[in-house]
Design goal:
This protein folds into 2 domains: about 160 residues, HAD superfamily/HAD-like (Rossmann fold, 3-Layer(aba) Sandwich); about 60 residues, no CATH class. The chain is α/β, with parallel strands linked by helices. It starts with 5 loop residues before the first strand and ends with a strand. Strands 4-3-2-5-6-7 form a 6-stranded parallel beta sheet, sandwiched between helices. A two-stranded antiparallel ribbon has the order 1-8. The protein is built from 9 helices and 8 strands. The radius of gyration is 18 Å and the shape is elongated.
C-alpha cells in the first residue's frame, strides 16, 4: 500500500481529471455496454440477448487499451447500430459524482489550471457535457482521439504537453484507471489520485499502488489552509 500522502496545494499548478468513473458515475457506461447494447443488437440482428453478450464482450475485449475502445463511430460500423442514438436513450443515467462540483469550485477559487483529459470520443463528450453542464469549470478539454493516442500509451502524456503547458512534477492527475495512473507516473506526474468509487452501483476498489479516494471532498482542506492528508 502507498504511504500516507500530504498534499500541499501551493505546490500544485495544474490538475488533470479523467471523466468517466472519475468525475461522472460509470454506472451509465457499464449499463450501456453490458446490457443495453447487447439488447439492441439482439433485437436488430436476431438471436438471444445472452448470445449477443458473449459475442460483443469478445469484440469489446479485443479493443481494450486502444482508441477503438471508446470510438463510437467504430462501434457503430462494427455492430451495425447507431451508438450515439442508443446513448441518448439512456442519457437520464448520466450523473456527476458527489462533491465533484465543490472540488472544481475549490480549484477555480485557488487559481489552479484544470483540464478534463479523457479517452472519451467527441460524441460522448458532447452528450455528457450537455447533460451535466460541467464543461465551464475547465480551462480546457482534451480527448485522446484529438491526440491520436489513448492514455494507456505512455507517450500520451508527452503529447498532451503540446496542447497543455503543464509541469509534470507540479501537476495532479485524478483517475479511476490504475493503468492510466501508471503511464502518468512513468512520465513523472507528481500527484496521482485513484478514484475508487467509480460507480454508484459497484463496490469501491482500493488501489495497492496509488492513493485512493472515494470522493473529491477528501482533497479539499477543511481547516482553511492549503494542505490535506490522505
Amino acid at each position: 500500500m502507498p504511504l500516507p500522502l500530504k498534499i500541499d496545494w501551493t505546490l500544485i499548478d495544474t490538475v488533470l481529471l479523467d471523466m468517466d468513473g472519475t468525475l461522472l458515475d460509470r454506472h451509465f457506461d457499464d449499463h450501456f455496454w453490458v446490457e443495453h447494447v447487447p439488447k439492441r443488437y439482439a433485437e436488430k440482428h436476431g438471436g438471444t440477448v445472452q448470445a449477443a453478450k458473449e459475442k460483443l464482450y469478445r469484440m469489446f475485449r479485443s479493443q481494450e487499451n486502444t482508441l477503438n475502445w471508446t470510438d463510437l463511430d467504430y462501434w457503430s460500423e462494427q455492430l451495425g447500430l447507431d451508438i450515439p442514438v442508443l446513448k441518448e436513450e439512456l442519457n437520464h443515467l448520466i450523473a456527476v459524482h458527489p462533491f465533484v462540483t465543490e472540488f472544481l469550485l475549490f480549484l477555480r477559487q485557488h487559481g489552479k489550471k484544470t483540464y478534463l483529459v479523457t479517452n472519451a470520443h467527441g460524441k460522448t463528450l458532447n452528450l455528457k457535457l450537455r447533460r451535466t453542464r460541467i464543461g465551464s469549470y475547465f480551462d480546457g478539454i482534451v480527448s485522446a482521439h484529438d491526440l491520436g493516442l489513448p492514455k494507456e500509451d505512455p507517450a500520451f502524456w508527452g503529447k498532451l504537453q503540446q496542447v497543455i503547458p503543464y509541469i509534470p512534477q507540479r501537476s495532479m492527475l485524478g483517475e479511476d484507471s490504475e493503468t492510466n495512473l501508471e503511464t502518468a507516473r512513468l512520465f513523472g506526474i507528481g500527484y496521482l489520485i485513484h478514484v475508487g468509487r467509480f460507480s454508484s452501483t459497484s463496490v469501491p476498489s482500493l488501489s495497492e499502488r496509488f492513493h485512493t479516494i472515494h470522493y473529491f471532498s477528501e482533497l479539499i482542506p477543511r481547516d482553511g489552509g492549503m494542505t490535506v492528508n490522505i
